[in-house]
Amino acid sequence: MDRLKHILNARPPANVKSEPDEAKIRQTLIRAKQAFYQSDRQRNTSYPEFLFCQFLYLKKRWWLLQIAVLLLIWRMLIHSDSVDAIRRYIGGLAPVFAMLIIPELWRSRRTDSLEIEGAAFYSLRQIYTARMLLFAMADTLLLVVFSGLATYTERISLFELTTQFFFPLCVTCCICFRFLCSRFTDSEYYAVALSIFWSGIWIFLIMQDEIYRAVLPVVWIGLTVISVLYLAWLIRRVCLSCDSCMEMQTLL
Question: Residue 136 pLDDT > 70, yes or no?
Protein backbone atom coordinates (compact mmCIF):
# COMPACT_ATOMS: atom_id res chain seq x y z
CA MET A 1 0.00 0.00 0.00
CA ASP A 2 2.82 2.40 0.82
CA ARG A 3 4.46 1.61 -2.49
CA LEU A 4 1.20 2.42 -4.35
CA LYS A 5 0.89 5.76 -2.58
CA HIS A 6 4.48 6.53 -3.46
CA ILE A 7 3.78 5.87 -7.15
CA LEU A 8 0.64 8.01 -7.22
CA ASN A 9 2.31 10.92 -5.46
CA ALA A 10 5.45 10.74 -7.53
CA ARG A 11 6.19 13.69 -9.80
CA PRO A 12 6.90 13.20 -13.53
CA PRO A 13 10.51 13.46 -14.65
CA ALA A 14 11.85 16.89 -15.38
CA ASN A 15 12.17 16.22 -19.14
CA VAL A 16 8.47 15.26 -19.50
CA LYS A 17 6.04 18.15 -20.05
CA SER A 18 2.81 17.97 -18.11
CA GLU A 19 1.04 20.53 -20.35
CA PRO A 20 -0.03 19.46 -23.92
CA ASP A 21 1.69 21.15 -26.86
CA GLU A 22 -1.07 23.17 -28.55
CA ALA A 23 1.00 23.77 -31.68
CA LYS A 24 1.40 20.05 -32.30
CA ILE A 25 -2.26 19.40 -31.60
CA ARG A 26 -3.21 22.11 -34.12
CA GLN A 27 -0.81 20.63 -36.67
CA THR A 28 -2.30 17.17 -36.13
CA LEU A 29 -5.82 18.52 -36.70
CA ILE A 30 -4.75 20.24 -39.94
CA ARG A 31 -3.19 17.05 -41.27
CA ALA A 32 -6.26 15.05 -40.29
CA LYS A 33 -8.53 17.49 -42.16
CA GLN A 34 -6.30 17.37 -45.23
CA ALA A 35 -6.35 13.57 -45.22
CA PHE A 36 -10.14 13.56 -44.82
CA TYR A 37 -10.73 16.04 -47.66
CA GLN A 38 -8.33 14.19 -49.94
CA SER A 39 -10.07 10.87 -49.25
CA ASP A 40 -13.50 12.45 -49.70
CA ARG A 41 -12.43 14.13 -52.96
CA GLN A 42 -11.45 10.77 -54.41
CA ARG A 43 -14.96 9.44 -53.78
CA ASN A 44 -16.75 12.34 -55.48
CA THR A 45 -18.61 11.57 -58.67
CA SER A 46 -17.62 13.22 -61.91
CA TYR A 47 -20.04 15.54 -63.71
CA PRO A 48 -21.05 12.88 -66.30
CA GLU A 49 -21.80 10.50 -63.43
CA PHE A 50 -23.72 13.24 -61.65
CA LEU A 51 -25.69 13.90 -64.85
CA PHE A 52 -26.51 10.21 -65.09
CA CYS A 53 -27.67 10.19 -61.46
CA GLN A 54 -29.99 13.10 -62.21
CA PHE A 55 -31.29 11.18 -65.22
CA LEU A 56 -32.16 8.27 -62.93
CA TYR A 57 -33.81 10.68 -60.50
CA LEU A 58 -36.16 12.17 -63.10
CA LYS A 59 -39.44 10.38 -63.68
CA LYS A 60 -39.58 9.14 -67.25
CA ARG A 61 -43.38 9.20 -67.41
CA TRP A 62 -43.32 12.89 -68.36
CA TRP A 63 -41.21 12.12 -71.41
CA LEU A 64 -43.61 9.33 -72.30
CA LEU A 65 -46.50 11.79 -72.05
CA GLN A 66 -44.63 14.22 -74.29
CA ILE A 67 -44.17 11.45 -76.84
CA ALA A 68 -47.90 10.70 -76.60
CA VAL A 69 -48.73 14.38 -77.24
CA LEU A 70 -46.52 14.48 -80.36
CA LEU A 71 -47.97 11.22 -81.64
CA LEU A 72 -51.47 12.58 -81.09
CA ILE A 73 -50.66 15.72 -83.07
CA TRP A 74 -49.09 13.69 -85.88
CA ARG A 75 -52.10 11.38 -85.95
CA MET A 76 -54.45 14.35 -86.23
CA LEU A 77 -52.37 15.86 -89.01
CA ILE A 78 -52.66 12.69 -91.06
CA HIS A 79 -56.42 12.29 -90.69
CA SER A 80 -57.39 15.96 -90.90
CA ASP A 81 -58.52 17.54 -94.17
CA SER A 82 -59.10 21.04 -92.81
CA VAL A 83 -56.35 23.63 -92.49
CA ASP A 84 -58.20 25.32 -89.64
CA ALA A 85 -58.43 22.04 -87.78
CA ILE A 86 -54.69 21.49 -88.18
CA ARG A 87 -53.99 24.92 -86.75
CA ARG A 88 -56.34 24.29 -83.85
CA TYR A 89 -54.76 20.91 -83.04
CA ILE A 90 -51.20 22.16 -83.14
CA GLY A 91 -51.93 25.44 -81.38
CA GLY A 92 -53.82 23.73 -78.58
CA LEU A 93 -51.43 20.87 -77.91
CA ALA A 94 -48.09 22.69 -78.26
CA PRO A 95 -48.44 24.37 -74.82
CA VAL A 96 -49.37 20.98 -73.33
CA PHE A 97 -46.05 19.57 -74.53
CA ALA A 98 -44.21 22.38 -72.73
CA MET A 99 -46.29 22.18 -69.54
CA LEU A 100 -45.21 18.57 -69.00
CA ILE A 101 -41.79 19.82 -67.85
CA ILE A 102 -43.36 21.65 -64.91
CA PRO A 103 -43.83 18.71 -62.49
CA GLU A 104 -40.16 17.68 -62.57
CA LEU A 105 -38.64 21.17 -62.46
CA TRP A 106 -40.91 22.12 -59.54
CA ARG A 107 -40.42 18.79 -57.81
CA SER A 108 -37.76 20.06 -55.38
CA ARG A 109 -39.94 22.94 -54.21
CA ARG A 110 -43.03 20.76 -53.97
CA THR A 111 -41.29 18.13 -51.83
CA ASP A 112 -39.38 20.70 -49.69
CA SER A 113 -36.04 19.11 -50.60
CA LEU A 114 -34.19 22.29 -51.60
CA GLU A 115 -32.16 22.49 -48.38
CA ILE A 116 -31.10 18.85 -48.69
CA GLU A 117 -30.06 19.29 -52.31
CA GLY A 118 -28.31 22.56 -51.46
CA ALA A 119 -26.17 20.76 -48.86
CA ALA A 120 -24.87 18.25 -51.40
CA PHE A 121 -21.44 18.41 -53.04
CA TYR A 122 -22.97 19.76 -56.24
CA SER A 123 -24.76 23.06 -55.75
CA LEU A 124 -28.42 23.70 -56.34
CA ARG A 125 -27.48 25.63 -59.46
CA GLN A 126 -25.70 22.59 -60.88
CA ILE A 127 -28.66 20.37 -60.03
CA TYR A 128 -31.12 22.65 -61.85
CA THR A 129 -28.72 23.00 -64.77
CA ALA A 130 -28.38 19.24 -65.08
CA ARG A 131 -32.13 18.69 -65.05
CA MET A 132 -32.79 21.43 -67.60
CA LEU A 133 -30.00 20.05 -69.79
CA LEU A 134 -31.55 16.57 -69.69
CA PHE A 135 -34.97 17.95 -70.61
CA ALA A 136 -33.44 20.05 -73.39
CA MET A 137 -31.64 17.05 -74.88
CA ALA A 138 -34.68 14.79 -74.72
CA ASP A 139 -37.15 17.41 -76.01
CA THR A 140 -34.84 18.44 -78.84
CA LEU A 141 -34.61 14.84 -79.98
CA LEU A 142 -38.37 14.41 -79.80
CA LEU A 143 -39.06 17.64 -81.69
CA VAL A 144 -36.55 16.82 -84.42
CA VAL A 145 -38.17 13.43 -85.01
CA PHE A 146 -41.64 14.98 -84.92
CA SER A 147 -40.67 17.72 -87.38
CA GLY A 148 -39.21 15.15 -89.74
CA LEU A 149 -42.36 13.04 -89.65
CA ALA A 150 -44.67 16.05 -90.05
CA THR A 151 -42.80 17.48 -93.04
CA TYR A 152 -42.18 14.06 -94.62
CA THR A 153 -45.89 13.30 -94.73
CA GLU A 154 -46.36 16.72 -96.40
CA ARG A 155 -49.25 17.53 -94.12
CA ILE A 156 -47.62 20.75 -92.99
CA SER A 157 -44.71 22.86 -94.19
CA LEU A 158 -41.70 23.76 -92.09
CA PHE A 159 -42.80 27.40 -91.96
CA GLU A 160 -46.29 26.50 -90.74
CA LEU A 161 -44.75 24.15 -88.21
CA THR A 162 -42.56 26.98 -86.94
CA THR A 163 -45.36 29.53 -86.64
CA GLN A 164 -48.11 27.21 -85.43
CA PHE A 165 -46.16 24.86 -83.16
CA PHE A 166 -42.71 26.14 -82.19
CA PHE A 167 -43.77 29.73 -81.52
CA PRO A 168 -46.55 28.88 -79.01
CA LEU A 169 -44.25 26.20 -77.58
CA CYS A 170 -41.48 28.72 -76.93
CA VAL A 171 -43.90 31.23 -75.41
CA THR A 172 -45.23 28.56 -73.06
CA CYS A 173 -41.68 27.63 -72.04
CA CYS A 174 -41.02 31.32 -71.36
CA ILE A 175 -44.05 31.44 -69.09
CA CYS A 176 -42.93 28.33 -67.19
CA PHE A 177 -39.34 29.44 -66.68
CA ARG A 178 -40.49 32.92 -65.72
CA PHE A 179 -42.33 31.48 -62.71
CA LEU A 180 -39.57 29.00 -61.80
CA CYS A 181 -37.67 30.26 -58.72
CA SER A 182 -40.14 33.10 -58.34
CA ARG A 183 -41.39 34.49 -55.03
CA PHE A 184 -44.85 32.99 -55.43
CA THR A 185 -45.40 30.02 -53.14
CA ASP A 186 -47.73 28.32 -55.64
CA SER A 187 -45.79 29.33 -58.75
CA GLU A 188 -46.38 25.90 -60.28
CA TYR A 189 -50.13 26.53 -60.47
CA TYR A 190 -49.65 30.08 -61.73
CA ALA A 191 -47.46 28.75 -64.55
CA VAL A 192 -50.06 26.15 -65.55
CA ALA A 193 -52.95 28.63 -65.39
CA LEU A 194 -51.16 31.26 -67.46
CA SER A 195 -50.03 28.62 -69.99
CA ILE A 196 -53.63 27.46 -70.44
CA PHE A 197 -54.74 31.08 -70.81
CA TRP A 198 -52.05 31.65 -73.45
CA SER A 199 -53.16 28.49 -75.28
CA GLY A 200 -56.72 29.81 -75.49
CA ILE A 201 -55.56 33.18 -76.79
CA TRP A 202 -53.35 31.53 -79.41
CA ILE A 203 -56.12 29.25 -80.67
CA PHE A 204 -58.43 32.26 -80.98
CA LEU A 205 -55.83 34.23 -82.96
CA ILE A 206 -54.89 31.50 -85.43
CA MET A 207 -58.53 30.73 -86.13
CA GLN A 208 -59.00 34.30 -87.38
CA ASP A 209 -57.82 34.09 -90.98
CA GLU A 210 -57.77 37.85 -91.49
CA ILE A 211 -55.42 38.27 -88.52
CA TYR A 212 -53.29 35.22 -89.26
CA ARG A 213 -52.74 36.09 -92.93
CA ALA A 214 -52.17 39.77 -92.23
CA VAL A 215 -48.93 39.00 -90.39
CA LEU A 216 -46.00 38.64 -92.77
CA PRO A 217 -43.84 35.48 -92.66
CA VAL A 218 -40.84 37.60 -91.66
CA VAL A 219 -42.77 38.83 -88.63
CA TRP A 220 -43.65 35.28 -87.57
CA ILE A 221 -40.02 34.20 -87.85
CA GLY A 222 -38.90 37.31 -85.97
CA LEU A 223 -41.35 36.65 -83.14
CA THR A 224 -40.13 33.06 -82.90
CA VAL A 225 -36.48 34.17 -82.73
CA ILE A 226 -37.33 36.74 -80.05
CA SER A 227 -39.14 34.11 -77.98
CA VAL A 228 -36.16 31.73 -78.27
CA LEU A 229 -33.72 34.46 -77.19
CA TYR A 230 -35.94 35.44 -74.28
CA LEU A 231 -36.22 31.80 -73.28
CA ALA A 232 -32.41 31.48 -73.29
CA TRP A 233 -32.18 34.57 -71.06
CA LEU A 234 -34.76 33.15 -68.65
CA ILE A 235 -32.89 29.84 -68.41
CA ARG A 236 -29.69 31.72 -67.61
CA ARG A 237 -31.58 33.74 -65.02
CA VAL A 238 -32.91 30.58 -63.40
CA CYS A 239 -29.40 29.11 -63.21
CA LEU A 240 -28.08 32.26 -61.54
CA SER A 241 -30.95 32.79 -59.10
CA CYS A 242 -32.05 29.25 -58.23
CA ASP A 243 -30.29 29.48 -54.85
CA SER A 244 -32.80 32.16 -53.85
CA CYS A 245 -35.57 29.53 -54.03
CA MET A 246 -34.17 27.87 -50.93
CA GLU A 247 -33.88 31.21 -49.11
CA MET A 248 -37.46 32.20 -49.94
CA GLN A 249 -38.76 28.78 -48.94
CA THR A 250 -36.93 29.05 -45.59
CA LEU A 251 -38.47 32.48 -44.95
CA LEU A 252 -41.94 31.23 -45.81
Answer: yes
Residue 252, pLDDT score: 41
What DSSP line would sit under the chain, residue for residue?
-HHHHHHHTPPPPTTS-SS--HHHHHHHHHHHHHHHHHHHHHTPPPHHHHHHHHHHHS-THHHHHHHHHHHHHHHHHHH---HHHHHHHHHHHHHHHHHTTHHHHTHHHHTT-HHHHHTSSS-HHHHHHHHHHHHHHHHHHHHHHHHHHHHHTTSS-HHHHIIIIIHHHHHHHHHHHHHTT-S-TTHHHHHHHHHHHHHHHHHHHHT-HHHHHHS-HHHHHHHHHHHHHHHHHHHHHHHHHTHHHHHHHHH-
Q: pLDDT at residue 119 above 70?
A: no
Q: What pTM, to 2 d.p., does this model score?
A: 0.70
